């Protein structure tokens, strides 16, 4: 969940939230041995990286699979499976990678250029139905093996350098000797065992997945790079952020994101170290723009004005985080500091709703053509801050004459039954960027093959073209002009309400040391240097 494009580096995120854990203060014995215990709030959906779009899956697959490149802690792209950075043809349409010659899959079989070609061909097969296929098809024309350790990619058209490098950080490479037995038409079915039992080449290898209980990983002996210090990782599904905090307090869990509501309490836990850093993440509310309630952008603008973001940040997030106004992060290359911002203005919100034909009825609920303005706001179960935020939004929109009913749904159901089939009015969720490169095509493009994460069915042809052109523009000044315009259109059309930019708080048991992190990427999925004092 990488690049916004190949999911665009976005991964639907489970932001850590929680109610006060003061009620549970009992202390249990620390977890023993060289094992890292990570409490989580949901099960993965699919452990194949090109078949998943959720953070629970990515948290696991990011340890098992790798890309040709990766972002490092200095916020640069560096080789991973590749032996060096790629070379480009004069027209920038061919990208050539030399692989390391000592790569092996976790079963001991060699990893070669044949695996790379097979993987991308499989994703792009019309029968694969891979959720991230649109991103790959949009980028690549073909893949060719030049020799055992050399692979050449032909792009559909020249792309901005950062877009290309970002694309190749995707962990899409799977073992041909196993996957060639799988028919592409069975990719997203139970007939593909590797969605449940993945075989990769990362620092850790898969051991077991007990649904609704745990996923276990162990150090991969065939991993050629810096070997992890920690022998095993156990990701334990505890169902909610409240239970995650209990796990930290009892020392059953070693590390977890701490919600803003509990930072002060966790700072008082003498067995924890607390780390804080900015994240490339955003919380937002997305409209189903095909809904009769939200087809009119004036209504969407009104609701944006009616939501008091700062009140939500101050009340629920304890001031941790900043009001968001764009999917582009402040300070990144193409962020537009002058984009339209929707500061809280209930008077203007009511005026816009009146102009859109939604008039207040006798019961205080707006109506139009005999239809009451009653909608449902969905969010994922176990994320306590989102659950509470949905209630606050409900009360804020009531003041504008809109009745909101909240629906809290288990994570996998939230994704598969509501978002993907687009059966919702509004959803409260978030995105986590895997790096700093901006491309919103997967989120907002009207073509389903490109906008594979366009859950709100938003459509704007001018925006489609701008997004396509921006990622292909090799002149930075021209590209920036396009990115600024993209943000202006989104601010005017309001397919989503951007609530806040994330700042993470990580609590780690003091038995663990050498925690490395950086603003933006956080720990960058890298546990290799972490050390456990047994």
Task: Describe this protein's structure.
The chain is an alpha+beta fold and 534 residues long. The protein has a domain of 222 residues: Dipeptide-binding Protein, domain 3 (Roll). The protein is built from 15 helices and 23 strands. Strands 1, 12, 13, 14, 18, 19, 20 and 21 form an eight-stranded mixed sheet that branches. The chain has a four-stranded mixed sheet with strand order 2-11-10-9. Strand 18, helix 11 and strand 19 form a beta-alpha-beta unit. Helix 8 runs antiparallel to helix 10 and helix 14 runs antiparallel to helix 15. The two termini are 34 Å apart. The N terminus is likely disordered.
The counted number of beta strands is: 23
Q: Can you give the helix content as a percent range?
A: 25-40%
Low-confidence stretches: 1-29
Oligomer: single chain
CATH architecture of the domain at 281-502: Roll
Query: What is the overall pLDDT average?
Result: 91
- CATH fold-level label of the domain at 281-502: Dipeptide-binding Protein, domain 3
C-alpha end-to-end distance: 34 Å
- What's the CATH superfamily of the domain at 281-502, by name? Dipeptide-binding Protein, Domain 3
| Major sheet summary line | 8 strands, mixed
Indicate the radius of gyration in whole angstroms: 23 Å
Beta-strand content bin? 15-25%
Class by SSE composition? alpha+beta
CATH classification class of the domain at 281-502: Alpha Beta
Gross morphology is globular
Q: How many helices does DSSP assign?
A: 15
Key structural traits:
534 residues; alpha+beta; Dipeptide-binding Protein, domain 3; 8-stranded mixed sheet; 4-stranded mixed sheet; 15 helices
